[in-house]
Structures are given as C-alpha cells and as structure tokens.
Amino acid sequence: MTVLASALDTGGPEHLAHRAAMLEKLGALDAEHAKALAGGGEKYTARHRARGKLLARERIELLVDPDSPFLELSPLAAWGSSYPVGASLVTGIGVVEGVECLITANDPTVRGGASNPWTLKKALRANEIAYANRLPVISLVESGGADLPSQKEIFIPGGALFRDLTRLSAAGIPTVAVVFGNSTAGGAYVPGMSDHTVMIEDRSKVFLGGPPLVKMATGEESDDESLGGAAMHARVSGLADHYAVDEADAIRQARRIVARLNHRKAHPDPDPVTVEPPKYDAEELLGIVPGDLKTPFDPREVIARLVDGSDFDEFKPLYGSSLATGWARLHGYPVGILANAQGVLFSAESQKAAQFIQLANQRDIPLLFLHNTTGYMVGREYEQGGIIKHGAMMINAVSNSKVPHLSVLMGASYGAGHYGMCGRAYDPRFLFAWPSAKSAVMGPQQLAGVLSIVARASAAAKGQPYDDEADAGLRAMVEAQIESESLPAFLSGLLYDDGVIDPRDTRTVLGLCLSAIHTAPVEGARGGFGVFRM
User: Fold this and answer.
1) Taking a C-beta distance cutoff of 8 angstroms, is the pair 420, 391 a contact?
2) Model's pTM, two decimal places?
3) φ, ψ dihedrals at 430, nearest 5°
4) Which of 39-43, 192-196, 462-466 shows the lowest mean pLDDT across its residues?
5) CB of 398 within 8 A of CB of 350?
6) Cα 49 from chain centre
7) Which helix (H) or strand (E) holds 383?
8) Where is the CoA carboxyltransferase N-terminal domain (predicted)?
9) CA triplet 100, 106, 109: central angle to 5 degrees?
10) CA–CA distance, 259 with 487 (Å, rounded to integer)
C-alpha cells in the first residue's frame, strides 16, 4: 500500500505545544496582513469612497467569477521598509469568465497609487508569473505614476514594466488595462501598451504630461478632459477601445473582453469529481513543525495532509533517508515531491535528488520542494567523501530542470541547501513560506559562533588578549540580527517569496498554482544538464 500511515499523536503534549506556537505566529501574521488591507488608512479610504470609487480589492472581487478564489501574491511586500506594507499594489491570480488571469490593481488610497521601489519589484514579479505560466494580464489602473522622491530607484529599472507588456503581447499572452482614474506620465504607457484598454467617462485621465507640465513645457493652456479624458481618447486619439459609464460598467466590459479572448489552457484541468482529498485533516498541519527548528520532524506527515488520498509512492526510501522523494497527485495534478526529513543533506541525498529530478523531467511532471534543511553536511569525512561535487550535482539538476517547480518553506532553509531545494534564485514558478520558516546563510547561533572563532583567531595571531565580555555582546547582537532577518515577514517584505501562508491553506494554494502552471505547456528537459561531477 502506498497510502501514508500517520504516527501523529494529535492529542499529545508535543503536538499541542507545536500547534500553540504556530497559532501564535499566525496571529502575528494576521496583524501584518491587516496593515496591507488597510491601505492608506481610514482618512484616505474615506476620501476615496466619497468620490464614489471602489477600493482595489473590491474592484478585483467584482472582476473575478462569483464564488471563485483569488490567490493574492506578495501581500507583505515592503514590510520593514519606510513604505506601507503591500507596496500600494495588489497582485494575484483569479478566474475571469473561466480564464485564469494575473490581476494587478493599484491602491489609490496610498499616495494616490503612486509607485515606489517596492511597487515596481512587486509588479515585475507579477509579470514574470504571467509570462512563465501564459496567464492573461488584467491591470486595474489608478496611479499618479512614480513616487517622485524615490524616482532614482524607479525610473531606470521601471522601463521593464513596459517592456514586459510588449513581450507578453508578442508571446500571444493577452493584456487588458482598465483605467479607473489617473494614469499619468510613464503610467500612461500601461494602457498604451496593453492589447485592450477600457476607460471610464469623467474618471479616466491618461496623459504623458498633465496640464501643469504642459504649461511649463510648451506654454499651452489645457484641461484634464481635453488632454487625456476618456471621451477624448475614445473619440479622438483612439487610445480607448471601450468607453464605460462607471466603474461597474468598466469591470463588466473587461469581463466581456476576457470572454472573447479564446484563450485556452495547454493542459485540461482534472475532473474534480475524481480527486480524492487527503485521509487526514489539514488542521493537524498546525502541530507538525516544532517551535524550535533544531527538533526534526517527519515531512511525510505533511505530505499525507497535502496529496490526493494521502497516496505517495516513495522513491529510494532506504537510500539518502534525510530526503524523502516520491510521486503523488495534488488536486488531480501529478507532482514529484522532494521533502527534507532530518534537515541535513548528505552525498546520498544529493545524488538521489539529482536522479529524481531527471526522472521528473523525462515524465514532464512538476516538482514540489518542501524545505526543512540546515544545508549540506560539513566536516573532514564528508569533504573527503565528495559532498561538494554531490551537492553541486543536485544544484546542477535543479538549475537545468525545465519542469515547473513549486517551493514551500516549512522550517529551516539555510545555506546551499536553500539553493539545492529550489530557493528564489532558482526560479520556482511559485514559492511560499509558512510562519514557522526561517532562511539565511546559516542559523543565528552558528553564524555568530563562526564570527567569534574568526575574531578569536585573529587576536591570537596578533598576540593580543581576547575580550570575552565583548565577544558575548557581539554574539548576542549578531544572533538577534540574523534571527530578525531570517523570519518570513522580513523575507516576504523583500519579495523573496510569493506570500506567507497558513499551513492549513497549503493544499488549496498549491492546487491553484498547479492549475495556473498547466495553462502553459509542461515539458521537461531531455538532456542539457551540464556536466555532473561523478
């Protein structure tokens, strides 16, 4: 039998302690997500509503099909920076007229929807997702353009936004812009470079330069409507393809545009009737990962609560046992899973992973990486045994694999193990973290200890006494810094993942991602892995 048996004692003190720790982290996460939902705050939200306008997420809710999910991406972007959480932009994947689309919406309650450096990074990540998965892009635009005080960080790299729109169109991926208010300066190129543009009577304002700039540049007197209003663009310039009377009408017209795209998925969706849920309750995921990540846990307990029927065909179960690999289905989609078991990756695990990744590429099966690793093993025995070349073999396989990759950081994701398990730099189609996750070059205690050893050796080499009291203070400071910089909210703020998710939502999130992935062809590498050092 390949149905996973669970040894989890859900009523035991260990499970209950882990669950309590996870719930505490989820409470803190909810507070941070609330900041993103608040946008610019009550004052600016009230002002926006007084103008008869919908909020960004309300526009999205009307756009997507009734009762269909919207997978919001990077909601904590800009966390920990001087900019508001969320980066004044909402991005995500939603179904419009039965078509999965990448949707972006400016939040005009935050500095009029102006783009700051984190807005740019978040928008570029959204375009990357759309391109890789061939998802039509719908831009709900209301922005005053670049946040001018930070223009030096936006202007030069910001051109990539417009490049992306043209490349999406050239690749046959439809782009739709719905303009709800201002779309000025560089922002005017969003509707200008989209395949389809909807503008709203007396609301949409699209121009390269507004009346003050035109006055300064040419001396010409002008007004918003004649310079860039919806009526002018619909009747005179031709920039507007569709003319709407209000926001609801604009959203209705956008939905009709998508309905007429004739955009088809490369792979049909599985029949939901045939999809068997896991044998175990997702609620139990809260008590699996220990609060102290030094304590190992069995990732098969996680897999059993994610995959269809808890059915998992393990590959090489007796070899390289610190890495569980095997085949399953998730919401009907085939997946190959690599999950860290005891944290450390040895030579056997690395070779096993490389072979498994090659097999997935031969079979055109997407890969799911479940992270809980402290990295590759160190020490004289392991160096002499070839850990470098074997770790390089695994990283080579991940780097040159062509099937889509999904990554979920459950616990630790340290050092080169983060790379071998397809961290952000290795272009996973989607990467999410649990609130329990931590990621850094190494653990805080190890990093502080290394610095201490180096400093002590340096003092000895110079014949100087070593200040143990100062050393203790340095170690405490470094540990605190690395701990804070390895937490999921910090890393999500930097857009090193696509969101920090509730473990109970993992199966749903992965199912939505797998569905989006199958809009594009899923094809593996048939070679081209480079030289494996044997």
Assistant:
1) yes
2) 0.94
3) -145, 145
4) 462-466
5) no
6) 30
7) helix 380-384
8) 22-273
9) 140
10) 42
Residue 533's beta-bridge partner residues? none
Dist. CA 338–CA 315, nearest whole Å: 10
At 1, list the tokens. 């039998």
Domains of the chain: 1-38+270-441+487-534 (3.90.226.10), 54-259 (3.90.226.10), 444-485 (no CATH)
Write out the two tokens for 146. 């670049």
Query: Using one digit for the tens of pLDDT, what is the confidence trace for 133-162?
Result: 999 999 999 998 777 678 888 888 989 999
- Secondary structure (H, E, C), 398-428: HHHCCCCEEEEEEEEEEHHHHHHCCCHHHCC
Inter-residue contact 331 to 365 (CB < 8 Å):
no
State the Cα–Cα distance between residues 483 and 377, nearest whole angstrom: 22
CA 173 to chain centre: 20
Q: Which contacts of 509-514 are long-range, i.e. CB under 8 A and separated by 24 or more positions?
A: 509/71, 509/432, 510/306, 510/330, 510/331, 510/368, 510/406, 510/408, 511/330, 511/331, 511/333, 512/69, 512/71, 512/93, 513/71, 513/406, 513/429, 513/430, 514/330, 514/331, 514/333, 514/335, 514/366, 514/406
**CA 419, CA 426: separation in Å to the nearest integer?**
7
- Would you state the pLDDT for residue 154? 86
* 515-519: average pLDDT: 98
User: Is there a contact between 79 and 489 (Cβ–Cβ < 8 Å)?
Assistant: yes
Longest Cα pair distance anywhere in the chain, in angstroms?
Answer: 83
Output the pLDDT for position 247.
98
Strands 367-373 and 405-414, by their bridges, are: parallel
- Name the CA radius of gyration of the chain, rounded: 25
